[in-house]
Amino acid sequence: MPSQSAEIDQIVAVSARRNAQLGIRGSLLFTERHFAQLLEGPRDAVEEVMLSIESDHRHEQVTVIERRPIDGYRFVGWSLSYWGDAGYVDAQIGKLLESRAADEVGDLYMLIQRMAQESRKAGSPIGRPSL
């Protein structure tokens, strides 16, 4: 049985390759209790990824917080950025799942975007750029 870390690494690697093939961009956050993912790309491709996520036996309580058209990619050049366990992020995801308030969706989106920007600038371990 692979360790949790090895399993997550495998999910990230497979997802990054698949996302790149489908023209999907976005970010995946993992805390010991929650995953949060932001996907952007062609509607059919995003739907394909969502069907795969929802049918994966490892996922429970998949909740779509927001679905809407956007003007262009916000994660240009990243098929999947990834951040591992972080207590602060876990608290933000938990609040969002409880309230689903529009301002909390915006706050989480801004946090994800800021993490991607910082990771790109520093090339630091807070995120792993996609393949």
What does this structure look like?
The chain is mainly alpha-helical and 131 residues long. Helix content is 50%, strand content 11%. It has helices at 4-22, 43-55, 87-99, 102-122; strands at 25-30, 35-40, 81-83. A three-stranded mixed beta sheet has the order 2-1-3, with helices on both faces. The chain is globular and about 35 Å long. Mean pLDDT is 75; it is low at 124-131.
Q: What is the alpha-carbon Rg in Å?
A: 14 Å
In terms of per-residue confidence, which ranges show pLDDT below 50 for 5 or more consecutive residues? 124-131
Q: How many H/I helical runs?
A: 4
Shape: globular
Number of strands: 3
Distinctive features:
single chain, 131 residues, mainly alpha, three-stranded mixed beta sheet, 4 helices, globular
Topology record:
Elements lengths: L3 H19 L2 E6 L4 E6 L2 H13 L25 E3 L3 H13 L2 H21 L9
Parallel strand pairs: 1-3
Antiparallel strand pairs: 1-2
Short synopsis of the structure:
This protein has 131 residues and is mainly α. The chain has four helices and three strands.
